[in-house]
Design brief:
Layout lengths: L5 H8 L4 H22 L8 E3 L12 E3 L7 E7 L2 E7 L3 E7 L3 H7 L5 H9 L5 H19 L25 E6 L5 E8 L13 E4 L5
Antiparallel strand pairs: 1-2, 3-4, 4-8, 5-7, 6-7
Helix pairs in contact: 1-2
The structure holds coenzyme A (COA).
The site of coenzyme A has 23 residues, from helix 2, strand 3 and helix 5.
């Protein structure tokens, strides 16, 4: 816990469920360890800030590393028992989603793009929860890559309603990552400037164990 900064410790202290606390702390310790490797500093020395939101310029855009020239972009996600981190030289977003119950699929699928919803519904019922988690993970990865988050909805962009068949907004590469069957994961990378050729996607799944 001593490695975390004041804001992280305050957020950790606000969790009322032990599992949520452990996942948050495990994810942030993992994020610090991964970034520390790239920056050549101790995990506790990584300083975080926020970019301005690209939509409203508020101070809730993508999290960034402060006080380091040319610091890499990064993205963090935690859900269920997993946390995932992505680091890149270009804007990047990553997301992990716990596969929901069949009842939750019914409630959530209406927030998708109409075409994605149709594709999810065409699947046999037992495959729909994983398909929903997959498309949701792609959406969050892309919207976190943009830095906007989900505030303006998930239905306006088509990213594919079947696992393994991701759509791609112009200038972005969106890919499913291998999950563990209980979670779906995806990454979105801004390729507009450099193109996708030669791009290597390497991500790390961090089990969030007991608080260190
Ligand atoms: C940010 C958001 C996408 C996170 O999704 P989630 O499913 O709750 O959580 P995830 O584990 O996938 O991701 C959380 C991480 O995303 C990152 N994140 C937060 N805001 C982000 C943003 N704008 N862009 C990119 N990444 C962001 C943080 O690292 C966060 O980790 P932390 O909460 O442990 O600090 C979601 O909460 C959201 O869209 N919030 C609305 C934001 C909003 O209202 N914006 C107003 C725009 S005008």
């Amino acid at each position: 816990m001593g490695v975390l900064d004041r804001r992280e410790r305050e957020r950790a202290a606000a969790f009322t469920r032990v599992g949520d606390l452990e996942r948050y702390v495990g994810a942030h310790l993992g994020l610090r360890r991964v970034l520390a490797m790239y920056l050549g500093v101790e995990p506790g020395a990584v300083r975080f800030g926020r970019d301005a939101c690209p939509r409203c310029a508020g101070a809730h855009g993508r999290p960034v590393v402060r006080e380091v020239a040319d610091a890499p972009y990064f993205s963090l996600s935690h859900s269920g028992e997993l946390a995932v981190v992505a680091v890149a030289r270009v804007p990047v977003g990553i997301d992990v989603q716990r596969v929901p119950s069949e009842e939750t699929v019914e409630l959530v699928e209406r927030r998708l793009h109409p075409e994605e919803r149709r594709e999810v519904r065409e699947l046999p019922p037992e495959r729909r929860p994983f398909a929903l988690a997959s498309v949701w993970a792609r959406k969050e990865a892309y919207l976190k890559g943009l830095g906007t988050g989900l505030a303006h909805g998930l239905g306006h962009v088509y990213l594919g309603g079947r696992p393994g068949v991701a759509g791609a907004p112009v200038g972005w590469l969106v890919r499913d990552l291998p999950g563990d069957g209980r979670h779906a994961m995806a990454v979105a990378v801004a390729v507009a400037r450099h193109g996708a050729e030669g791009l290597r996607i390497v991500s790390r799944a961090l089990p969030t164990g007991p608080v260190a």
